[in-house]
Amino acid sequence: MDNIKVDIPNTFNPEEYNKRELEQLKKSSYLSKYLNDNGITWDDVSKNVVLFKSMLVQVEECRKCKGLSDCVKSHKGYVELIEKNGICDIYLKPCKYLLENNKHNEMLDLYVYGRFNDNLLNLNLSNMELFKEDYQYMNAWNQIVQYAPNIDNENGVYLYGSPGVGKTFLMVALCNTLVAANKTVAFVNVPEFISDNKNHIDKNEMDVIKNADFVVFDDIGQESVTNVTRDEILFPLLNARMQNNKATCFTSNLSFDLLYNHFVYSQYGDKEDIKALRVMERIKALSKEVELSGKSRR
I want to staple 247 with a disulfide (CB 3.0 to 4.6 A). Which of 26, 151, 197, 284 is the partner? Predict the structure, then answer.
């Protein structure tokens, strides 16, 4: 059987292809700026047309992306860009969503106990919307702002007032501000912590709270008082933080005087002044009273 010969015309011309694609690349305002910012010339591009064309495809994919879950890259969260170190070569740059995710995870790592809803992690003292706030709220905010850069040298804030006036919100902003400054933070909702530990005290959690750079005891005074919860849970935590000069703040519905009344009676109705005074002395040594009044925001 005779061999069959098929003539295939050689229509692909690499030089023509490069010239045509280079003209297309020159229409990209993004690429023009990129070259200028990174010390790359059009001559460099002409020698690496396919490389730069691929980069623009990557950049366009990233422009349309709405988050890490939408990322189509083989290296999730990275875009392939080009740098010139003698020759043009690819390097991987983390995208804004990966950087945000990494920052989010770093924040979570610094919250050694307790955490908030993710939508509160971006809140801090400098980005709060304050233009509609009254004098009382602004005074409380200002006291916390003045305290934030000096937590190692000043007493904390005991922020008290009616339920729903924004006490916890302000403390969340303070916590996030301190985490951004690389402080370890424990945010302790006191009633929840007491409920979780009243039958079996978690000494690991106790140690974490004792040693954190900064602690908020949130909603203190709303927990059930027993000899165990007052004398074996709260007192050791407060005493350790006072002795080690650890930055500590509180939120409560009760003033110092009313909080003393909360602690003075045992679950059996016995009045125990000395034990209540021991707790209150440590709270007062750690913080100063700041009242926040106003209508409920809930």
Answer: 151
Residue from 86, 84, 77 nearest 34 by CA: 84
How far apart are the C-alpha atoms of 81 and 142, rounded to whole Å? Answer: 45
Q: How many angstroms from the chain centroid is the CA of residue 217?
A: 19
Could you report the per-residue pLDDT of 84-96, keeping only the tens digit for each? 988 999 999 999 9
The pLDDT value recorded for residue 269 is 80
Question: First-to-last CA distance in the chain?
Answer: 91
**Cα–Cα distance between 66 and 273 in angstroms, integer?**
59
CB 134 within 8 A of CB 294: yes
CA 151 vs CA 173, 174, 183, 255: distances in Å: 15, 11, 10, 22
CB atoms within 10 A of CB 70: 10
Amino acid present at 78: Y
